[in-house]
Amino acid sequence: MSFLDNNRAESDDHGEVFIDDSDIIQEINIDEEELPDADEQEQQGSDDEDIEEADDSMHTFTGHTGEVYAVACSPIDTTLVATGGGDDKGFMWRIGRGDWAYELQGHIDSVNSLAFSMDGQLLASGSFDGTVRVWDVASENLKFTLDGPGAGIEWVKWHPRGHVVLAGSEDKSVWMWNADKGSYLNMFTGHANTVTCGDFTPDGKTICTGSDDATLRIWNPKSGENIHVIEGHRYHTDGLTCLAISPDSSVILTGSKDNNVHMVNILTGKVIGSLTAHEHSVECVGFSLRVYVFKCWVGVLRCGSHFKEVGVVYEEVKHFLGKARRYTAVEGIHWSRAELLLIADGFRGPWAATGSMDQKLIVWDLQHSVPRNTFLHEGGVTCLAWLGTTRFIATGCVDGKVQVWDSLSDGENAVKTFSGHTDVIQALTISASGDFLVSVAVDGTARVFEIDEFK
Fold first, then answer.
1. pTM value?
2. What mean pLDDT comes out for the span 179-195?
3. Mind giving me the DSSP string for 297-342?
4. What are the residues facing 305 on neighbouring strands?
5. Residue 151: closest CA among 166, 171, 132
6. Helices then strands (H, E): number in the chain?
7. Looking at residue 292, what is its pLDDT?
């Protein structure tokens, strides 16, 4: 008989049971004001339920039956999205149309990478089954199955000017195919471990790949020649997790499990800068398409033989890809009867963003390799995307939140937080129109959030 059953039996045998002073072990005083009443507790429970159920998405795709790993938006169709997941399935579906989806059938392992060709005509799906499948978007048909790698596909990318697809594999190799003909073009070997990240340069002339062997390799796509191997002193000491290439194809950023980010000159293969503020694995990096230039207008007056510096005015001037679009005249300075002698140019250069499992998004001034702003999250940062050519950055987080940050702000809070996911965000991307952000998560869903206010 249990303790509770025994007490219950004694109570039944002896009727009412009384407690005397000798039964008291400790007396505790309780302030009645500290006790919540039943109504307050019920209201608190209701509030908690409301918080848990918050969903800011305008569309949720629930076709997957397992974790969702990959997402891609068509570069020409503003509503077409592709997703892939741990259920061995990929789907094409449309934002705002819950009644339509096309299943990308045939993979026999997780679909972990997706990419649309630059003209939007083809979609490539990469899987841990070691194959890349190429789909005709218009007809919704399988065009080719590309094989060759001896292990799972880690990522897929398209040439910026043609139907040439590139994929990195767990078998330490990189493969390139002609997607119009379904034919093999080249294989790039030399890495000593899984090829975790890679891409063509924007001009299409070079391939850059990073590996879990802690090296970056730069290749000639046509000949297959390994032009540069970046490793050792001044470079990473642990596996590479991510990379990004500057819009002018001159610089590559690489992030690593060693907590660091390095800048490499693609032409020379030399490390030209190190970004060392993170305290945990760097999971994502990205260049801003907006180049920030701060014009430092230094006014120097000459009155006869006398010179005097009269002031400094800072002004942001917007550039795209390094080419000036607009300058605004300096106002509010009156030179009196003196002659303006000098206007000196100040800092100019691109910015980049990096996200880490240390819960930080850091925006960097790349010219000086110093942080411009640091934004704290409540969990590790798993993915990021600059919102077009704006100053805003979107991040996905381990806590299931998607947030938008102003890279120019010194504030601690995100300008927008999107709720809806209930588990780790795996990837996110932006629609061709810039109106929508699509994120995928371990919770098995893809969610669409409206971001047109940041255009």
1. 0.79
2. 98
3. EEEEEEETTEEEEEEEEEEEEEEETTEE-------S---TTSEE--
4. none
5. 171
6. 2, 35
7. 52
Could you tell me whether strands 348-356 and 251-256 are parallel, antiparallel, or unpaired per DSSP bridges?
unpaired
* Cα–Cα distance for residue pair 275/355, rounded to 1 Å: 12
> Rounded CA gap, 419 and 428, in Å?
14
> Which of 79-83, 111-115, 348-352, 409-413 is least confident?
348-352
Tens digit of each residue's pLDDT (9 = 90 or more) over 63-79: 999 999 999 999 999 99
How far is it, in rounded angstroms, from Cα 265 to Cα 272? 6
Q: Is the dihedral of CA 437, 440, 443, 448 positive or negative?
A: positive
Amino acid at 363: V
